[in-house]
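ok trying again, last paste got cut off:
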Amino acid sequence: MDIPQTNWRIIGNNGWYDYSFSTYESNVEEVAQWKQAYWVDRPIVQPMNDPERMTIVLHQVEEKLKQARNQQKQVIFMTHFAPIREALPHPIVESARRQRMWEMTTAMLGSRHLGALLAKFPEVKVVFYGHLHYAQPLITVGNIEYRNQAVGVRHKNSEDWKGKSLLDQWISHLYTKKI
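nice, full thing came through this time. structure:
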């Protein structure tokens, strides 16, 4: 979608994950088995595995970015899943079992390949993503601003949630930038 009276284009793609943030990236069958036991996406029926699905996403995004380049548009990219490793939390993991659980979870958080693709296009200036459920500060990698627009999760004793209501919290996390 082009923003009227500007040279900005918003490109959106829900994205997916391909295990590339995990040390289990090459163990597709093992991650898929873990996913079927524990992950919220387990009931989704698809005719391919997750890395194959992400390959389709990458192709779709690349085509849209090439179109934007050819039409000399600057790009705001929006996706659900994390596109860069820098966005992921870095928990202290105390046991081999917990490390395995963390690596399996990390496998489903997004794709480093999406971040690498976005970095190939200097037209991409801002990326909005989610999926991680907690509010984060701005992350800049190269010339791209990465913004997780999550409003946070309301937990007792959480520093993440300061609003009295969801609306208050949402308003406090709005971001505007003159373009």
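cool. The domain at 8-153 is CATH 3.30.750 (Transcription Regulator spoIIAA). The CA atoms of residues 34 and 101 lie 9 Å apart.
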